[in-house]
Amino acid sequence: MEHVKNYIETNKDRFVEELFDLLRIPSISAEQSHKPDMKRCAEFLAAALVKAGADRAEVMPTEGNPVVYAEKIISPEAKTVLVYGHYDVMPVDPRNEWNTEPFEPVIRDGRIWGRGADDDKGQLWMHAKAFEAMCATDSLPCNVKFMLEGEEEIGSSSLYGFCREHKELLKADIIFVSDTSMVSMDTPSITCGLRGLTYMEVEVTGPNKDLHSGLFGGAVANPANVLARLVARLVDENGHVTIPGFYDDVRELTPQEREDFNRMPFDEEEYKRALDIDAVEGEAGYTTIERTGVRPSLDVNGIWGGYTGEGSKTVIPSKASAKISMRLVPNQDFNKIAILFEDYFRKIAPKSVHVEVKALHGGMPYVAPTDMPAYKAASAAIEESFGKRPLPFYSGGSIPIISGFESILGIKSLLMGFGLSEDAIHSPNESYGLNQFFKGVETIPLFYKHFAEMK
Known about the structure:
Structural class: alpha+beta
Distance between the termini: 20 Å
Number of strands: 18
């Protein structure tokens, strides 16, 4: 594969310049004002994949944002890899915490800074450029299909229908995903498990309008106060989720499994320093890496109500709301958890307020077997490029559509990402190391080589 490496080295500056063009498109799926940007981003990717060597590429409509589909078929007898990625990105708020313009990428300290630099534009661009390098050097050993969506950050709701409608088109031996992280560049890893997700929104309503807090304070339920009390009751002082039935389907690890899992390199002091916290917190009786990998959790993602502007306005708000996510582990069903959450939240709400509960989106947990050919090929590829055998890693994150691929398309997914915790995905000042990007571009062709050779 030396010719592939040479091609990458010769074109590396152009690869980054093109990625910058992609990062400049503000494809925020959560905000309707960016709807035209979603289409523009999809068209950019379709054109780029044709230029990279695809036989065909098109922007295909869905009920929501379009899907970019592209393919290059070298032989009916060859194995087929379906590359999945997403071109939508998270909103940039809070804007004042960014050190650079979110959609004007820059290189500083060996890193690309900008929204989407890692999640997932930088990582999907690795696949586009690795594909280009293989095509340009006539060394592509597998059929390749691309499916790039624009709704991952809001639940991929349209992609489920797209997969059902185009099952024949999407036939493949494996789905190849780079939307995850490694333990570190010194400790390469392959994600073999993802937590599931149930994402809810609650609204607490009291009086029919905002009230003067002097004239009515102490006599009328304050929805913001009530919401704070309700949220506080969802997790107890031991970090245990209090929703009845929440843990019913959780499979407890055996003592040996826990011992093996905790062999993963982890420095808690460095973890705290990186986050500027004095202590970790979570479910009692479990380590930090267990809490983020193999245990479920509940978190408030946003909370609002009343006056939050400059200065003072002494009101009792009419409404208060919160967005709440629950990360789930294998055997937990996100639909069941949504029902349990709603039943409990309504039960603990006082009669002095009215409560609305909405399930926004979710997805099942996912486990990728370490004995499948694609995992073995990925392990061999990483060992060849990093000089170390990768560790299997259970990620605390969620990609809800991955379990959907298995149930709809009947295809397992390989989760070989090159992100790192310091990339600050979903946060201000997201970045992606140039070494991560180019190590990904270098490793992906090695996966194809080893996968094509697997029996």
